[in-house]
Amino acid sequence: IQAEANMTNAFSNSVEVKVTDIEEGSSGFNLGIGNAVYPFDISLYVKGTNTKTKPAPGYAVKILLPVPDHLLDVKEKLVVAHKGDNGAVSTLASQLKQIENVWYLAFEASEFSPYALLVDDRIKTYSETTGLPFYINAEGTKVFIGFAAKGKYIAPADAKVFFMENPKSFKDITKHWGREYIKFATERELFFGTDVDLFSPDLGMTRAMFATVVGRLYERSYGTIAVSGLGAFNDCSYDDYYGKYVDWAAKNGIISGYGNGQFGPDDSVTREQMASILYRFSNFLGALPSNMDSRLTYPDAESISGYANSSALYCQTTGVIKGRNGGEFAPQSPSTRAEVATILGNFIEVVL
Questions:
Q1: Which pTM does this prediction carry?
Q2: Over the stretch 220-244, which tens digit does the pLDDT of each residue have?
Q3: Which pLDDT belongs to residue 35?
Q4: What is the 3-state secondary structure (H, E, C) of the chain?
Q5: pLDDT surpassing 80 at residue 28
């Protein structure tokens, strides 16, 4: 193992890194992904002692972990997970690197012990020249996979996957700034046009519509969502197009209402509401980054509501929401269909 750190500022002593087996069982890293889990311990010690240490606040250690020989064949599917002191498990952004014919997983760590390598068999690779991945569901309908980008996709475990082009043509996006991501979202059929050849990119989107798009994204990669009958909100029609998606998202803590059983399905979804939903969705998928920015740098950060602060930090850290003109977050502004398509595209790429 190799480790790199700012030794001048992060530590007051010389440090050594040890990787060992641990008693932590694989069930302790239940993120709902992968079918193989390999727990291990990474700890930092004051050199020559048995005294554990960690970097000063604000600093991290870059770890280069050799990929074990028996996992080399699945190295592209490896995910690094960490279990915090509060028991919460999160995945860390990692990168495969080959140094002198040895493969390493590179990631940054600011907390230590315990960790695990997860083999995520949901993630498969494909050649983007072959078209988009899809499968045929139980009703015989062609389902284009939602989480599919940059040569990777996530499909239901029992799905037989095929590939084909699925081009969409809208005459009102030819010169629109969001054209590429609109194509991205509609080819995966997360969105549909407002007419045969119209997308209406600058129309707003309601809270019910956004819950539906998020639900469609999930079920196209993880399987059909069933209605639970929770009925958490008394102002929603659960027989309507959005019903099962609002039901599913509320049950899993992905959406929340205004209180008193009100969801406001026909209200415009604001950018900070959208950020909060995607933040919770990422957490539900076990895909939150372990190290997020600690300070908001959007020019209008002070106008972001307190409840959305962590969500905005997530969007800033990952680049899911890059800001409008001048980089402003515009938290209370309604979201347009073009913005939602772009932000969803960014979100899919970040998760993959």
A1: 0.72
A2: 998 888 877 778 899 999 999 999 9
A3: 67
A4: CEEECCHHHHCCCCEEEEEECCCCCHHHHCCCCCCEEEEEEEEEEECCCCCEECCCCCCCEEEEEECCHHHHHHHHHEEEEEECCCCCEEEECEEEEEECCEEEEEEEECCCCCEEEEECCCEEECCHHHCEEEEECCCCCEEECCCEECCEEECCCCCCCEEECCCCCCCCCCCCCCHHHHHHHHHCCCCCCCECCECCCCCECEHHHHHHHHHHHHHHHHCCCCCCCCCCCCCCCCCCCCHHHHHHHHHCCCCCCCECCECCCCCECEHHHHHHHHHHHHHHCCCCCCCCCCCCCCCCHHHCCHHHHHHHHHHHHHCCCCCCHHHCCCCCCECEHHHHHHHHHHHHHHHC
A5: no
